[in-house]
């Protein structure tokens, strides 16, 4: 079992006035109990990067649904990819899309489990402040469909595809309420 990993947050231009430590619980794959600490850290970093990439690619697709390539967001033949294709088709049909300004939206991995060497499960807190827009109104401006700022927790299952991790399924765990209720991004 690897030691707890802590991340020290610091300001880029001045020393921090407070120190924040975030511990991410990690379960090592049972088939790889002899993995070196460096291998474990690489897996953790790769999974966190995959979670971030899926979110960034989701946002890019939803900002320009007609140009979207859903396979850049989720693992091939996964339940999430099928669901996302339907979501994008509905967005195109209804004229909905995501505004370019995400207004500080972000997500943070709170917990990681590795049930096997090619599977990971991430518990993710998401602060969603993005605005969904719709077709232009009588004033010629896009209509605001949803501009709420909320936080939620999801469970994201990831699998290895080729030599990279990709999200294959996202399950809603809980709505945390209005505003930002997630830990700071580390």
Low-confidence stretches: 1-21
General form: globular
Lateral arrangement of strands in the main beta sheet: 3-5-6-9-10
Distance between the termini: 22 Å
How does this structure look, described?
This protein is an alpha+beta fold. It has two helices and ten strands. It has a five-stranded mixed β-sheet with strand order 3-5-6-9-10. A three-stranded antiparallel β-sheet has the order 4-7-8. Strands 1-2 form a two-stranded antiparallel ribbon. A hairpin with a 2-residue loop joins β9 (150-161) and β10. The longest helix has 27 residues, at 37-63. The radius of gyration is 18 Å and the shape is globular.
Keywords for this entry:
186 residues; alpha+beta; 5-stranded mixed beta sheet; 3-stranded antiparallel beta sheet; 2 helices; 10 strands; 23% helix; disordered N terminus
In short:
This protein is of the alpha+beta class. Helices cover 23% and strands 38% of the residues.
């Amino acid at each position: 079992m690897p030691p707890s990993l802590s991340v020290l947050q610091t300001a880029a231009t001045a020393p921090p006035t407070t120190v924040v430590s975030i511990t991410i619980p990690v379960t090592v794959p049972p088939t790889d109990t002899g993995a070196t600490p460096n291998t474990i850290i690489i897996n953790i970093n790769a999974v966190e990067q995959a979670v971030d990439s899926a979110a960034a690619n989701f946002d890019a697709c939803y900002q320009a649904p007609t140009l979207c390539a859903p396979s850049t967001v989720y693992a091939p033949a996964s339940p999430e990819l099928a669901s996302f294709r339907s979501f994008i088709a509905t967005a195109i049909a209804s004229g909905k899309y995501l505004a370019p300004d995400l207004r500080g939206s972000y997500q943070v991995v709170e917990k990681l489990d590795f049930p096997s060497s090619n599977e990971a499960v991430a518990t993710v807190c998401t602060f969603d402040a993005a605005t969904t827009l719709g077709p232009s109104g009588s004033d010629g401006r896009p209509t605001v469909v949803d501009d709420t700022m909320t936080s939620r927790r999801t469970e994201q299952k990831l699998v290895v595809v080729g030599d990279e991790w990709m999200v294959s399924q996202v399950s809603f765990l809980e709505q945390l309420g209005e505003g930002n209720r997630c830990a700071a991004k580390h």
